[in-house]
């Protein structure tokens, strides 16, 4: 794998003294999907805007495909496609023209076949002669993606691509992202929807107050930071946890018929065997046993609030 | 230079013009006709001739300048202000283009549109009065330079403005009075001596005087001064644009 985007100690301070980015460093491999999670105002959009050239960094370096975003801005920007968070389109222009404009703006010659392919892929072909103002919100978002893809970027930034879109369209977006990954496009997306990161990302970065708290393989992150729980369901409810089981740190649910045992998947000994032996010794009869892993959302909330997951 | 990008911006801007072609065409024809009816006929019946040229023909260069200047400013300022207002400027800022290329695209389109309108007014005027153009090359040069320089001014206004009110501030409060007091409808020699001197501080006087000279060989100020004035104005606008380019003023934060 080669590094396609390299961010080193990136800082951005605004005139009022607000520090939106406090020394962010990040390497992104070609062909991966990275999800940036973070609360509102965390610095996600500032990070993307700086890499894309919309905001000038205060200090730090960013290279795209080896090209510095300031010294070699043409080569660097040619490789990047950006789908902004807000829907920003010229309302009176036709879909076809606005997509063709994006292609030309990035220095690519006319290629109607390519634009047709993109519009068909995004289910916009039938709307190509429509003015933007005649489209629904979801369709406008597709037009933004079409504009970004029109100049054949190698890195695509999707800033909250599914904010405010219905479930069906969100699934469509995920499908589009998967297809782009197949085609070798590197994708960096910011999102509020943790299930989105969980569903499509290879790696997850968590950003808060202008700092990148962590970047990790999604699966490794969940395995490393996730707590796992075993729920031991009993056939008959009990009033209290038997003394013989007091060493296991169990909790009993409200109905008294489920014992909950929390353990660390990375620990050398999880204590599961001993627990189940001890439960059998007490004479309790089991109805079912389930395991449950903490979701990315719980990990995220815990990270941002500074508590361990 | 990224000529493909410049062409894309130019074409996109011109598309807006062609979408409303009838409006773009009819509006100058109508307003010019009205000026001829009101000024040419009503006032022209009292002022027969100005320095050997019929009053109707005399006001033609000023009328063309009036429309061209106002249109160049409004086209260029809206051209760049609209993306700022809509948020679509993100695409320009993230594209592999520099500020000069953006300026060439927008200003080129705005200048083309105003040039077109200028020619439409000239053609319309020929239906009302006899027009002769003694120095066609100078006429073309003045017209093109005016379209370009006031499009540059419009672009600067569009970058500067942070709301629609500010967009109309400069054209309405500064440019319109300067044009009306700049000898569009009269010769400066018709004013009392004091006002003749004061008028010489109005830069538009040099513009209209030079343009009128290219038609009839008549001028209020020497033609060289007119040429220097329009070149200095263009240079000033370019200097401001260059400064915006360097500092990213009101564009990049």
The biggest beta sheet of chain A is recorded as: 6 strands, mixed
What is the second-level CATH architecture of the largest domain in chain A? 3-Layer(aba) Sandwich
Total number of beta strands of chain A:
14
Radius of gyration of chain A: 24 Å
Q: How are strands sequenced across the largest beta sheet of chain A? A: 6-7-8-3-9-10
- Output mean pLDDT of chain B: 89
What is the total domain count of chain B?
1
Q: Going across the major beta sheet of chain B, what is the strand order? A: 1-2
Rg of chain B, Cα atoms, Å: 19 Å
Give the largest interface pair and sizes: A-B, 34 and 28 residues
Fraction of residues in H or I helices of chain B: over 70%
* CATH level 4 superfamily of the largest domain in chain A: P-loop containing nucleotide triphosphate hydrolases
Order of helices and strands of chain B: HHEEHHHHHHHH
First-to-last CA distance of chain A: 31 Å
Taken as a percent bin, the fraction of beta residues of chain A is: 25-35%
Mean pLDDT of chain A: 89
Task: Output the number of helix runs of chain A.
Answer: 10
Provide an overview of this structure.
The complex is a heterodimer of chains A (309) and B (253). Chain A is of the alpha/beta class. Chain A is 32% helix and 28% strand. Chain A contains ten helices and 14 strands. In chain A, a hairpin with a 5-residue loop joins strand 12 and strand 13. The radius of gyration of chain A is 24 Å and the shape is elongated. With 253 residues, chain B is mostly helical. Chain B has one domain. In chain B, helix 1 packs parallel to helix 5, helix 2 (21-43) crosses helix 5 and helix 6 (136-160) runs parallel beside helix 10 (223-247).
């Amino acid at each position: 794998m080669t590094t396609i985007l390299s961010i080193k100690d990136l800082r951005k301070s605004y005139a009022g003294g607000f520090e939106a980015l406090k020394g962010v460093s990040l390497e992104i491999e070609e062909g991966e999907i990275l999800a940036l999670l973070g609360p509102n105002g965390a610095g996600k959009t500032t990070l993307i805007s700086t890499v894309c050239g919309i905001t000038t960094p205060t200090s730090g370096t960013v290279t795209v495909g080896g090209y510095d975003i300031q010294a070699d801005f043409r080569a660097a920007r040619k490789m990047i496609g950006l789908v902004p968070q807000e829907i920003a389109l010229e309302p009176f222009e036709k879909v076809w023209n606005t997509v063709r404009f994006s292609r030309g703006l990035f220095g690519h010659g006319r290629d109607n076949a390519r634009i047709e392919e993109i519009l068909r892929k995004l289910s916009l072909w039938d709307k190509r002669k429509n003015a933007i103002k005649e489209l629904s919100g979801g369709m406008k978002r597709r037009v933004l993606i079409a504009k970004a893809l029109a100049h054949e970027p190698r890195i695509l930034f999707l800033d909250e691509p599914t904010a405010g879109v219905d479930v069906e369209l969100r699934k469509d977006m995920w499908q589009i992202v998967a297809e782009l990954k197949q085609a070798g496009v590197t994708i960096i997306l910011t999102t509020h929807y943790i299930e989105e990161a969980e569903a499509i990302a290879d790696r997850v970065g968590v950003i808060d107050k202008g700092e990148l708290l962590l970047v990790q393989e999604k699966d490794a992150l969940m395995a490393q930071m996730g707590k796992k729980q075993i729920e031991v369901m009993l056939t008959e409810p009990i009033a209290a946890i038997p003394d013989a089981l007091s060493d296991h740190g169990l909790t009993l649910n409200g109905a008294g018929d489920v014992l909950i045992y929390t353990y660390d998947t990375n620990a050398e000994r999880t204590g599961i065997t001993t627990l189940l032996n001890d439960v059998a010794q007490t004479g309790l009869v089991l109805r079912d046993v389930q395991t449950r892993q903490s979701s990315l959302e719980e990990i995220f909330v815990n990270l941002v609030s500074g508590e361990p997951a | 230079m990224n000529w493909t990008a410049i062409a894309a911006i130019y074409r996109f801007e011109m598309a807006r013009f062609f979408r409303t072609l009838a409006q773009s065409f009819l509006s100058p024809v109508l307003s010019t006709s009205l000026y001829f009816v009101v000024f040419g006929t009503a006032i022209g019946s009292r002022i027969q001739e100005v320095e050997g040229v019929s009053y109707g023909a005399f006001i033609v260069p000023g009328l063309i300048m009036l429309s061209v200047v106002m249109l160049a400013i409004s086209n260029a300022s809206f051209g760049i202000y609209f993306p700022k207002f809509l948020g679509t400027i993100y695409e320009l800022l993230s594209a592999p283009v520099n500020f000069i290329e953006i300026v060439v695209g927008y200003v080129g389109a705005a200048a083309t549109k105003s040039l077109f309108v200028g020619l439409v007014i000239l053609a319309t005027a020929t239906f009302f009065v006899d027009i002769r153009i003694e120095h066609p090359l100078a006429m073309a040069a003045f017209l093109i330079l005016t379209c370009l320089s006031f499009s540059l001014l419009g672009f600067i206004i569009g970058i500067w403005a942070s709301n629609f009110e500010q967009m109309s501030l400069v054209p309405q409060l500064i440019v319109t009075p300067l044009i009306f007091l700049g000898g569009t409808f009269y010769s400066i020699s018709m004013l009392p001596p004091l006002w003749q001197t004061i008028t010489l501080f109005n830069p538009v006087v040099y513009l209209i005087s030079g343009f009128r000279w290219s038609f009839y060989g008549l001028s209020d100020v020497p033609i060289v001064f007119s040429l220097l004035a329009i070149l200095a104005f263009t240079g000033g606008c370019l200097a401001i644009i260059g400064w915006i380019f360097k500092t990213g003023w009101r564009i990049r934060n």
